[in-house]
Amino acid sequence: MNENLYYILKEYGLDDKEIKIYSLLVKNNKLTGYKIAKESGFHRSTTYYILDKLIEKGFVSKEDIASTSYYSSNDLDKVISGLKNKEDLLISLVPEIRKMQKEEKFKMRIFEGDSGAKEFNFNLVQLIKEKRIKEVFMIGNGPPEDTYFNIFIEKIIKEIKKSKIYKQGTFKAIWSMNLKRDKFIKQYEIFGENRFLEDIPSETTTIIYGDYLSFSFTTEKHYVIEIKNNLVANEMKAYFNHLWKLAKK
User: Fold this and answer.
1) How far is Cα 209 from Cα 237, in angstroms, rounded to an integer?
2) Cα–Cα distance for residue pair 193/115, rounded to 1 Å
3) Most exposed: 36, 121, 168, 176, by fewest CB within 10 Å?
4) What is the pLDDT of residue 51?
């Protein structure tokens, strides 16, 4: 399978087994559950369970002809359109949910794994869209090594570019000097200014935004630790400004 297609399907919430069966149906439209199980190598009960999940997610359709059920893949444009409508509905609920949340003087959250990192980035973009933060400062050691997560970050960057929300505020980023010509890092230039320091002694990406401070890092999987506290955020902002004066364009 095309690697890009695989990562896109992963991005839209399909696991490896679902992707395998969906790809099989794309190549061979209208197959019975028995044939799908045989071609995929999955147990029949597993196959029918996966097909039900794909139908629920909008990727597959089921048609009963006589006494036999046939399955076929839905066109990706139709699938994405349906997912986009659901996404827009959820996004419209975000302001109301935020109103319901109690403000706390000190709040800490841990986002774990790919889904956690995606949730964190979505929340950050929403804060910018809602104009709740106008400044974003970043100290990074480099782009993510994981291909899937790399593609996800690029998608977030494209979304910010498309919505032009980056024009609402200030963005500054400090990177390790050896990344000055890195193509991934250059994507951030549209938002504001990149500067560089020799040998940043950290594998953690630090982001300061409004009353928030986050540390993003990868061990066996992705983690983001987010702290909401005005004093801590301002202390880190002062530290960032000190490094900014030392950094080079």
Assistant:
1) 9
2) 29
3) 168
4) 94
Domain spans of the chain, in order of start: 3-78, 104-246
pLDDT greater than 60 at residue 149: no
d(CA 192, CA 94): 27
What would the 3-class secondary structure string for 123-146 be?
Answer: HHHHHHHCCCCCEEEEEECCCCCC
State both tokens at 186: 């250059």
Does the domain formed by 3-78 have CATH 2.40.10.270?
A: no
Check: pTM over 0.90? Answer yes or no.
no
Distance CA 54, CA 52 (A): 5
pLDDT tens, residue by residue, 155-186: 666 666 666 655 666 888 898 888 888 877 88
In sequence order, what E strands does 149-241 have?
Answer: 170-176, 193-197, 205-209, 212-218, 222-228
Confidence at 66, pLDDT banded by 50, 70, 90: confident
Task: Indicate the Cα dihedral angle 238, 241, 245, 246, nearest 10°.
Answer: 80
For 104-246, CATH gives 3.30.870.10
Residues 6+ apart with CB under 8 A from 50: 17, 18, 21, 42
Rounded CA-CA distance 183/28 in Å is 39
